[in-house]
Amino acid sequence: MCEQARPASSFILPESFPGGVTSTYHVPVLAETVRAWAAGSRRAVDATAGGGGHAALLREAGATVLAIDRDPEAIAAAQARLGDERVRYLSTAFAAPLALAAVAAFRPDRILLDLGLSSHQVDSTDRGFTFRPGAPLDMRMTPGPRPGGKGGGGPGGPTAAEVLNSWPEEQLATCFADYADEPHPRARALAREVIRRRRRAPLLVSDDFVNAIRALLGPRSGPAEFARLFQALRVAVNDELGQLERALPPLRDALRPRGRLGVITYHSGEDRIVKHAFREWSQTCVCPPRQPVCTCRGRSLGRLLTRKAVVPAADELRANPRARSAKFRAFEVTDGPEG
Fold first, then answer.
1. b/e per residue, 13-52, with b = 16+ CB within 10 A?
2. DSSP structural state of residue 92
3. Which residue among 11, 34, 180, 222 is least enclosed by CB atoms within 10 Å?
4. How far apart are alpha carbons 286 and 300 in whole angstroms?
């Protein structure tokens, strides 16, 4: 059962909640967790709006919502679902200067990041996020014209095909090791296999990369391996970890006093960044490690609301298996912009 919401000064989230809210575009994970975290909000930012599932929960909690997403299809779906009553929309990446300025001007008391793909993105073969046969190796969160030659691949940056066909061995191996948790020897071997194959013909569709994976891991390799390695490409294409690292401090600083930042992660790289940031901010001294004299006056920036990551309960996983990797962490700031 969900705990009764307590005042912000004493609120600590339990470690699991049931789920159950559904949407035709996107099933919001950890819905009851988000409800409890959002209780009492008046102005909330859903910085990864998807189809509006979590934004709907924030509005139900009583907040006026700023919904942000870098995918214009997601913003259109959210607007179709939610309309314009107590919701504003912005189509850009949450780490973009435009988004950070808009969030600061909005002066929220809640900011939510759900770093997973929406079900719509996964199910849309033409977006290239899936390893279904024949899917283009695109994977850009911001879709655009597919590239006709060398270059950046449109408004969303390079496509997954461009990454596979142009990155050197060392860079590909680092991608597979860091973003798919592949052991370094195997990550390097896969990078070599990709390079060997692209010398014969460019890798353009999902089958091309799946065949490279199978050539290395054997015919018994399947969806689990494909999902991890396709995820690694997606993270690289969209600079997801870099954007997260750059965005967390200014998002924290935009919160009102006692405001809360919540992040739902889906793989170890994301979770590591969030966990380390929240722990560092909750320390009494937050000065840089090599600074000889403390200038922060021994005050933490806030406190952890999650003793450890909140994960979906069994009933939510039965209803939405795609939530299996989700982890929620939350932080409450001590100070923030008044007004």
1. beebbbbebebebbbbbbbbbbbbbbbbbebbbbbbbbbb
2. S
3. 222
4. 7
Over residues 20-30, the pLDDT tens digits come to 333 445 578 99
The domain locations on the chain are 16-120+240-333, 145-237
What is the per-residue pLDDT for 208? Answer: 95
Residue 69, Cα to own-chain centre: how many angstroms?
A: 11
Run of H or E including 263: strand 260-265
Decide: 109 and 260 in contact? Cβ < 8 Å: yes
The yes or no reply on domain 145-237 and CATH 3.30.365.10 is no
Sign of CA dihedral 118, 142, 251, 53: negative
Residue with tokens 């300025």: 101
Judged by DSSP in three states, 181 sits in: coil
Separation between Cα atoms, residue 312 and residue 320, nearest integer Å: 10
Q: The pTM is what?
A: 0.82
The secondary structure of residue 258, as a DSSP letter, is: T
Does the pLDDT value for residue 119 go beyond 80? Answer: no
Q: Pairing relation of β-strands 260-265 and 327-333?
A: antiparallel
CA distances to 141, 165, 175 from 158, rounded to whole Å, are 11, 11, 15
Task: Report d(CA 282, CA 267) in Å as an integer.
Answer: 23
The three-state secondary structure class of 66 is strand
Lowest mean pLDDT among 21-25, 83-87, 111-115: 21-25
Q: Which CATH superfamily is domain 16-120+240-333 in?
A: Vaccinia Virus protein VP39 (3.40.50.150)
List, as one string, the DSSP characters of 301-325. SEEESBSS-BEE-HHHHHH-GGGTT
Burial class (CB in 10 A: 0-12, 13-18, 19+), 124: middle
Tokens of 35: 């409800």
pLDDT (tens digit, 9 = 90+) per residue, 257-273?
A: 999 999 999 988 999 99
Q: Where are the alpha helices (DSSP H) in the chain?
A: 31-38, 53-60, 72-82, 97-106, 119-123, 160-166, 169-180, 184-200, 206-217, 223-237, 240-254, 268-281, 314-319
